[in-house]
Design goal:
- The protein is built from five helices and 13 strands.
- The chain has 283 residues and is α+β, with helices and mostly antiparallel strands.
- The chain is globular and about 45 Å long.
- The termini are far apart.
- The protein binds 2-oxoglutaric acid (AKG).
- Residues 92, 102, 107, 120, 122, 135, 193, 195, 206, 208 line the site of 2-oxoglutaric acid.
């Protein structure tokens, strides 16, 4: 029995590869999270860059709480089962009036995970709409196998390697996922998706949380994840602790070690081995 999604929603996710919009929190709560992020950015000297955009749930308690939010975990558990790891998190921030974009891609391309049972919860901390570069998806494209991609390393492309699908995408079929602050979309790791730049006068902020069942493993080396629900009976990942305070020294050191190791998997074969390498810094 699903806990949170309806049977038709589960059928729709399996058929189309996404669901949106789904409520997580009210607009006031989302705005408070945005204010926390922006207070951190004020203290770190500007928009989060480099490795701070990845696995930030290890550095900031408000994000450690967000990845465990029942309004996210209940629907994800309906899709992936009761034992859940948060494998990664990524901020997708498009500053106002900037060329940053996301090319059409499948998330699965460089992640190295053993099975495509991966669901992303993309949580909007601002509106995400046709005026500011909302994410769009190609429905049912997740039913294809892995598609070939080419790396562009375009510095305005927010993806790690600026990767894009190396086949024609039928853009007429694209569906934009319009979200209000505090809403989320869910998408499958093989779903083709992307997003255009943000010409509006405000930032567009999304926090992407990547969930996997505990049975999945990393094919490309050692990796880490956070147990967010249930039990880990497999032990495939180094389990991550929860931060008590913003940017604790020990968590900063752990975050550096784990993101460097993750970068070596994501950038394998390119010569880049950390998110602070100039070729890896995006925006
Ligand atoms: O934020 C975007 O526009 C794209 C996000 C994305 O590609 C993802 O969450 O996998």
């Amino acid at each position: 029995m699903p806990r949170s999604l309806t049977e038709p929603q589960i059928v729709a996710y399996r058929r189309d590869g996404y669901l949106a919009p789904l409520p997580v929190m009210g607009a006031a709560e989302a705005s408070a999270l945005r204010a926390k992020l922006e207070a951190i950015e004020a203290g770190t000297g500007g928009p989060l860059r480099g490795d701070l955009r990845h696995k930030a749930h290890l550095l900031f308690p408000f994000l450690a709480e967000l990845i465990r939010h029942p309004a996210i975990l209940d629907p994800v558990a309906d899709l992936l089962g009761p034992d859940l790891l948060c494998w990664n998190t990524n901020f997708f921030i498009k500053e106002a009036e900037t060329p940053s974009f996301v090319s059409w891609h499948q998330d699965s391309t460089y992640w190295g995970l053993s099975a495509p049972d991966v669901c992303t919860a993309w949580v909007a901390l601002t509106p995400s709409n046709l005026d500011n570069g909302a994410m769009a998806v190609i429905p049912a494209s997740h039913t294809m196998d892995q598609i070939p991609h080419r790396d562009t390393f375009d510095r305005h492309n927010l993806l790690t390697r600026g990767q894009e699908v190396a086949v024609e995408v039928d853009e007429c079929a694209a569906v934009p996922l319009i979200l209000q602050p505090g809403e989320m979309s869910l998408h499958h790791v093989r779903l083709v998706h992307g997003s255009p730049p943000n010409p509006s006068h405000d930032r567009r902020i999304g926090f992407a949380i990547r969930y996997i069942p505990t049975s999945i493993y990393q094919l490309e080396g050692s990796d880490s994840a956070t147990l967010v629900r249930g039990e880990d009976r497999f032990g495939h990942f180094e389990l991550e602790p929860r931060p008590a305070r913003d940017m604790q020294d020990d968590m900063l050191a752990l975050h550096r070690r784990l993101t460097e190791r993750a970068a070596q998997i994501l950038y394998r074969g390119t010569g880049v081995d950390n998110f602070n390498d100039p070729r890896a810094v995006r925006g």
